[in-house]
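cache lookup: miss for this entity combination. No prior model stored, computing from scratch. Input as submitted by user K.M.:
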Amino acid sequence: MPTYTMAQALNRALRDAMEADQKVVVFGEDVGALGGVFRVTDGLAASLGEDRCFDTPLAEAGIVGFAVGMAMRGFRPVVEMQFDAFAYPAFEQVTSHVAKLRNRTAGALSLPLVIRIPYGGGIGAVEHHGDSSEAYYAHTPGLRVVTPGTVADAYSLLRASIECPDPVVFLEPKRRYWARAELELGPGQGEPLGRAAIRRPGRHATVIAYGPMVATAMEAAEAGAEDGWELEVVDLRSLSPLDIETVCASVRRTGRAVVVQEAPTFCGYGAEVAAQVAESCFHYLEAPVARVGGLDIPYPPPALEHHHLPDADRILDAVAGLQWEDAR
Amino acid sequence: MGTVITPAHSSPVTGSQLLPSPTPIRFLDERGNPVDEHQGYQEPDLGLVVEAWRRMVVGRRLDTQCSALTRQGRLAVYPSSRGQEACQVGTVLALGPDDWLFPTYRDTMAILSRGVEAHEALGLLQGTRHCGYDPQKVKVAPQCTPLATHALHAAGLSYACGRLGEPTVALALVGDGATSEGDFHEALNFAAVFRAPTVFLVQNNRYAISVPLARQTAAPTLAHKGIGYGVASEQVDGNDVLAVLAVVQAGVARARAGEGPSLIEAHTYRLEPHTNSDDASRYRDEAEVEAWRQRDPILRLEAWLRRQGALDDTRAKAVAEEAEEAAASLRAALSEPAAPDPLALFDHVYAEPTAPLLRQRAWLEAKMASLSEP
C-alpha cells in the first residue's frame, strides 16, 4: 500500500478534483511553479496546465474577491492563503461576500469555492505563521469550516469540500503536513461534510479535538491507557456545522468531557463545544466540561511555543481534574 | 493621452499612453454648446443620445420619488444620485445585454435604467431584502455596500467569462472614496495582470459622505491611479452624457477586443445629501451646490438636443408624462408595506439548512403562531 503525507494527500485530492471537473481551478501565491510553500500544489500547473493552477499577484483580498467573481460565472476556485495570518487581508471578502452572497440573493447565486489555509503552530516558524484562526470563520454564518486531523481525512474532506455547493474554509494543520499514513486514495472515498468521527473508543472520558490536536489527543489516550484511563477521542472534522450529536452521544456514554484546541482558550471554538455539551448532556455529566487550549497570548516566538501548545500531558492533567474523587 | 482607450495596442504600451487626457473629455460645455475637447473620441449616435436623455429624465423623477418615499417610511434609506444621471444612464447604455453591471448602493438609477423592475431594484433600500432581483437574470450584481469590494468580483467574473470564450464585459461602478480602499487597487491590478475585460468607472462626486476629495488623494486625478497598474485610464466630464457614452463605449469595446481593463474617472457632483438622513450643510456650502446645479447634466443636454432639432416641447412633455407615470407605478409598487417571510431567513444561509437552523426556524414559526392566536 502506498504511503502518503498529509500534504501529498491534499495534493492528490486537488489533482483528482481537477481531473474530474474542468471548472475546478487552483490559484494563490506561489502555487504554480513552486508548488506552494508546503508543496500542496506540487506539479499541478505542470501536469494540468498553467490555466488550471496559477500564481496571482500577492494580495489575499484580491485572490478571494477574484474567486468570488469566477464562482459567480460557474468556476469552482480552490484558493490558497499562504499562512493563517496572511489570510487576514481577505477577511472582509470572506465575511462580507463569500459567506453572504447566497443569502443576499435568496439562493440565486451560490459560491462553491474553497479557501485553503495552513493554520496553527508547532513548526518553529516566526511570528504570523502560527495562528489558529478557526473561531473567526466558524463564528460567521454562511461559511463551512472544515479541518482534517488525519491523512485520510485530508484527502476525503478536501474532495468533499470542493464538491460542496457552499463556500468552505478548509483549515490545514500545518504541523501535520508531514504526518504519514499507508492508504489507498482515490474517488469514492468521499465523506459527507459535517460528521465527526470517533478515533478511539473509551469509556471513562471523551476527549474532543480537531485539526492539529487530534494527534495530540490520540497520544494522550495512548499514555492514559497505561494509567488505566480509557479515553474516547472524537475528531470533529467539521467545525461548522458542528456534529454535536456524535459528540453528545459519546459524552453520554462516558459522563466526562475535555475539549481540546490549540488556539488561545478565551472565546475559542472549544467554548462553544463545551457550552453545547453542558446544555445537552447536563444530567449525564459527572464533572464540568474541561477546556484545554493555548495560552491567552499572541502566538509566541518559536523558542517558547512549546509552553503555549497543548500537549498530551496537559490533556491528561485536565482528565485528572474531572472530579474523579466524587465519582458515583 | 486621451485617445488611449480607443486604439488597439499593437506594440508595448508606454506609461504615457496609459495616462488620462489632461482635461476631462467633453463634447458639450455647461450650457450645451459643442466644444472640441473630446480628443478624437467618436460622438455617440444621436438616437442613442436621445434615448439617454429620456432615461435621464425618467431616472431623475424616480430618484426624486425615492427620496420622497423615505419620508413616508416606504424606503428605509435612499442614497440619491441626483446630478449623476449622465453617469448612471450613460454607463448602462454603453453595455450590451450580456454584459454585467456591478453597482453600489448609490446606483439604483443605473439598475432601473438597466430594466430591473422598481419593486425588485429597491429591495435593499426598502429594508425588506438584501437584493430584490436575480443577478443572473438581469446581469446586475447585488448592490454593494462595502466600498470597492465588488470591483474584484467584476474582475473575476469577466476573467471567467473570457476563459469560457464569452464576449462579456463587466463594469464596476465605484465612488471617489472607494479609490482609497485596498480592494480598488487589487482589482485594478488583478484585472490588468489577467487582462480581464473589466471597466472601472469612478463616479467622482467630490464627497465620500462628508469627506472631500482632497482628503482621499493627492494624485492629479483619480484616473492617474490606473498607470501604476498598467491600466489605460481616462477622465471624462461626468455631467456630459455624450462624453460618458463615448468614453465608456470605448472602454467596453477595448475590453471586448481583448485589450484589457480600463479606468474611467467621471467628474460629477452629488446634488443631494449622502442619504435622506445626512445633513450636507455641515460639510459643504450652498454656493458650491448652486455652482454644480448650473452644470446640470439634463439641462445642458436638453439645450443641445433642441439645437440639434432632436427635441421639442411636444417630445419633452411626452417624456415628462412618461416620467410621472414611472413615478406613479413606483409608488404603486411600494404602496403596500412589504411583508418579507421571516421563515425565509433560514433558507439560503447554506444550500441546505443545517439542523440548528431548522430548530431556530421551528422556534420562530411557533413564536409567530402564538402571536397570531386570538
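stored under new cache key. Chain A has twelve helices and 14 strands.
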